[in-house]
């Protein structure tokens, strides 16, 4: 079921990549797009606030001035403010759905997931109070429906809806309180957004410039073609019987006033609780987390640099070895991706001991075992050419590939592969070529695995792949769960190239 | 679709996104009240009578109390619930007991009740009991009102002003 959904997402991704280009594919940077929309909302909001009057009697007129007299600036800002806020809802919903479908919400990621649920509440508080402060007929509906909805909780001694009973009773103080909340809630949201990505190294919070420009241009065009307007001044003596509603933010209010406030609370709280608990329904069966072996750690810090989840810190040496630092894993943050193993120079298969131990290891996938798998897989290959294919656990299902020239070695993440293993496979003549696959490019399950791997091969990130290793004997294709066909094509092309290569390359002993 | 230049597709995708945002930001229109209806809101806050009168303590009763608690008069703070009734065109459409607020049951009773009615002429009678009596009401007012469509008609109650207030 999840696999089917994942394949569907990937198919849409492929379409989107064709339209937007892979780098600008919005669907792999939804979190960054929410951040971006947030900044548009803040900048336009600051502009509006300069002209806005927070008093109930003058608020409407001040917004009308912005919209009509100053349409070219204030009007556009108002529309941008509304539409960028609106855009946040579908984008955040997709973000959520995507993390769920790609299974990036359980285990240590519960933190990002759980804080995300809280963000939704701040987001809605910001949006609902935003419609309130315009004090037009829609605002009137929002004020009455929201206070009635809160009264259904039965926690206020006096119904707060009485603040908006009629024109004679209307409470300017309550209105001003809402203007205040409309400033406070977005600030809390920002703080929450910051917390949300605390466990991420190099979080993607900014979309690429071209995508950002495209979105800003789109929202600006929408603002000019279809400006956000008010719906006539509020008058509490007349029920705003029919109004244009912003369904992104206000959908809960019709539920409350048409059915019941209690039902609306049950839906809002029930839904929040349900998604909050999803990381444990069922919980992730995670393999054991990374473990440091001090005997083999010299405190170089590469693992800490490469861990995408801030799970590794460097601490002062405790074992009296002549190094300053040592690596230390916080098990509560570790996702068992093994990217740290790929970064550790001590994970080298060229080491002499048969049962060597790396500075940091995944207990279920020891580095020495990886070397053994290379040797074993290689000895089982009898074709013309021999390819070792490294796949990650979140990569394509390769069980249908039946090819005597190909041996598959699975890793938790492709970033776990130390470059020295590639070196070992090719230079020590265990394979004619090494092929890497896994998640789709730009969408690594562990965020940076693919990129780190590529940079290590390109000698831009340590540990480097030695220059002597012929790069033409390494190929990659990021197939995800859905693109076995593309992978097969790419593999055939790779084989053709390998066949055409002269035999007198560095691994001449193969003949 | 392959032959369509990429940038046209790109603009098309942005346009669909904009259209969705633009549309759902105000459409479909929501109608919260039928076209020929008016809204009556009965809402007020009022404190009912205390459940018991204050009574003078007898010397024996006083002696039983701790020295620092000896006050000559004892007043229970708890109030009676209100009983409110609203009659529309001769028919009782609301009869509700309103418990006092507060943990000790010593606060105001409040009500906030909405009734949708067809616009036009109506006879309204509102009654309230705020005393310890078992039957009948302490306040009653009636009015013949003409309600316009979409009118928000609020019935308030203020004891100082003599009871119910029909605008
Ligand atoms: C204002 C709303 C939100 C913003 C601005 C936001 C932004 C982000 C960003 C920038 C990332 C980091 C992406 C990366 O670099 O890998 C992220 C990750 C994540 N978000 Fe959100 N998010 C929001 C709401 C939510 C919600 C509502 C949920 C789900 C309930 C959610 C779930 C997650 C999860 C599970 C991750 C972690 C993915 C991983 O560990 O690989 N987010 N978010
Ligand atoms: S990469 Fe290896 S040697 Fe370097 S700090 Fe990490 S565990 Fe220690
Ligand atoms: S296994 Fe992954 S998450 Fe855990 S410490 Fe290593 S790099 Fe970090």
Please give the number of β-strands of chain B.
11
Radius of gyration of chain B (CA) equals 28 Å
Major pleated sheet of chain B? 4 strands, mixed
Q: Which stretches of chain B of 5+ consecutive residues score pLDDT under 50?
A: none
Number of alpha- plus pi-helical segments of chain B: 2
What is the total number of structural domains of chain B? Answer: 1
In the CATH hierarchy, the third-tier topology of the largest domain in chain A is known as Cytochrome Bc1 Complex, Chain C
Question: For the residues shown, what is the average pLDDT of chain A?
Answer: 91
Distance between the amino and carboxyl termini of chain A: 47 Å
| Gross geometry of chain A | elongated
CATH H-tier superfamily of the largest domain in chain A: Cytochrome Bc1 Complex, Chain C
Strand content of chain A: 5-15%
Largest interface: A-B, 46 and 42 residues
The bound ligands are: protoporphyrin IX containing FE, iron/sulfur cluster
Computed structural class of chain B: mainly beta
Number of domains in the coordinates of chain A? 2
Order of helices and strands of chain A: HHHHHHHHEHHHEHEEHEHEEHEHEH
CATH class of the largest domain in chain A: Mainly Alpha
Sum this structure up briefly.
Helix content of chain A is 49%, strand content 7%. With 511 residues, chain A is of the alpha/beta class. In chain B, the strands form three sheets. A four-stranded mixed beta sheet of chain B has the order 7-2-10-11, with no helix packed on it. In chain B, strands 6-5-8-9 form a four-stranded antiparallel beta sheet, with no helix packed on it. In chain B, strands 3-4 form a two-stranded antiparallel ribbon.
